[in-house]
């Protein structure tokens, strides 16, 4: 059994609903699940559904690349914040022990 199929069997499907008076930005063409962004729909189609069109495959690849770039930027921000915190604590320790 493939890992994706096992994941689908063990992971419950989240309840999704659209508030009254709102339209979803994108909807899955296979299971009609609503999404706030088209990129999220493209990732969903590529991860969950097995039969894709060529256009859906390309959209999935673009979405994965964009998601990877966003995650890299997030990691840089976290590393910068941790580095800045470490530097401030180090300076406070140097000043505190020199008094």
TrEMBL record:
List the InterPro entries hit by this protein, alphabetically.
DUF7410 (IPR055833), Znf_C2H2_type (IPR013087)
* C2H2-type domain residues: 28-49
**Does the keyword NAD feature in the UniProt annotation?**
no
Annotated spans, Disordered: 1-25
Print the keywords alphabetically. Answer: Membrane, Transmembrane, Transmembrane helix
Q: Where are the transmembrane segments?
A: 78-97
Question: Transmembrane helix as a keyword?
Answer: yes
Its protein name is C2H2-type domain-containing protein
């Amino acid at each position: 059994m493939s890992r994706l199929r096992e994941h689908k069997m063990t992971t419950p499907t989240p309840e999704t609903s659209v508030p009254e008076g709102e339209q979803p930005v994108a909807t899955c063409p296979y299971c009609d699940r609503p999404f706030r962004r088209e990129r999220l729909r493209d990732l969903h189609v590529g991860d969950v559904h097995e039969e894709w069109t060529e256009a859906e495959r390309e959209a999935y690849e673009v979405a994965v690349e964009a998601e990877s770039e966003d995650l890299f930027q997030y990691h840089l921000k976290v590393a910068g914040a941790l580095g800045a915190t470490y530097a401030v604590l180090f300076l406070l320790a140097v000043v505190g022990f020199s008094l």
